[in-house]
Amino acid sequence: MSAPAVEAIDLVKRFGDNAAVDGVSFVVPEGSVLGLLGPNGAGKTTTVRMLTTLSVPTSGTGRVAGHDIRKEPDAVRRSMGLTGQAATVDEFLTARENLKLIGSLYGLPKKYIAETSDELLERFSLTEAADRTAKTYSGGMRRRLDLAVSLIAAPPVLFLDEPTTGLDPRSRSELWEVLRGLVRDGTTLLLTTQYLEEADNLADEIIVIDKGRIIAAGTPTQLKDQAGAASVVVTLTNASDLDAAERLIRTCSDEVHVDPIARRLTAKAAGLGDMSRIGQVFEESGIPVDDLGLKRPSLDDVFLHLTGHKAESTDETETMEEARS
Ligand SMILES: Nc1ncnc2c1ncn2[C@@H]1O[C@H](COP(=O)(O)OP(=O)(O)OP(=O)(O)O)[C@@H](O)[C@H]1O
Ligand SMILES: [Mg+2]
């Protein structure tokens, strides 16, 4: 077991009557990635703000790189970097100037800042844009610059609050690649996200929080298994083939659901192996198919399973009724 890089110890944060974070404890081993997964208002940002000393806990405490967040806030700040939910780069400065500004705030030597800036700009594909003001950057470039800035002091622990929200799929996977590189180099990551896919791609361990409490924890696979198995979904070209298709698919799976209106059959499956087997029997039968694919449980499915309500629910009345009952 490696030493814990981050520990949350019964963290509580109340705003008036509202417990934004309500007794959250976890450990992030050095060199690993923890994904804090939860819907809007779950308490993700509040947890990160407490651990990064930006907000004082109502009760409980935490440690970053062994330093207590209440007793040694300066030491905590020296051992971590933070990329917040909103980009914080100075729009009127260039990428290089942003890096220089933060580097000098950390008291780093000029030569070190210049060399490290070049490396970071290269790593985040910002070399060409390095001397343009950040206000000319796309959302993805700003996010990358934000991350580069939080790395100037080479912190061993990095907190990322929804690092890819608002990015297109390509920028998102590029950023994931950069983050994987950091982890390979030994950085510990704590990232918050609303996307199961993101946690799945990056995290060794996922903690699901809802209404300030941990409702599930485990590896990505463990969580998805809890939400139910994957399924193979087959959409037929002709509704007249439904009966034959159902008989066929039942030779591969014992749990089959038929939706005649959508001409769709859904079969419980263990994974890709089942999908290719089902694909093969359809191919051999000659039944024409519009679409055939594997559907894994989504964050919605995980949430629905764990909480009985949808993750993305912004329906206030529903939430209030739940709170009352
Ligand atoms: N400064 C504050 N004053 C009062 N209430 C707050 C404050 N900050 C957060 N809250 C409340 O605490 C709860 C948790 O908010 P938090 O920002 O931690 O959620 P989140 O999981 O980060 O959500 P999102 O995905 O929308 O960023 C919410 O109900 C929010 O309204
Ligand atoms: Mg947030």
Primary descriptors:
single chain; 325 residues; alpha/beta; Rossmann fold; Alpha-Beta Plaits; 2 domains; six-stranded mixed beta sheet; four-stranded antiparallel beta sheet; 12 helices; 14 strands; disordered C terminus; binds adenosine-5'-triphosphate; binds magnesium ion
Q: Ranges with pLDDT <50 over ≥5 residues?
A: 313-325
Number of domains: 2
Question: What fraction, in percent, of the residue positions are helical?
Answer: 25-40%
Q: How many β-strand runs?
A: 14
Q: How far apart, in Å, are the first and last alpha carbons? A: 43 Å
Give the overall shape: globular
- What is the CATH superfamily of the largest domain? P-loop containing nucleotide triphosphate hydrolases
Number of helices: 12
Largest sheet descriptor? 6 strands, mixed
Beta strand %: 25-35%
Order of helices and strands: EEEHEEHEHHHEHEHEEHEHEEHEHH
Instruction: Estimate the mean pLDDT confidence.
Output: 88
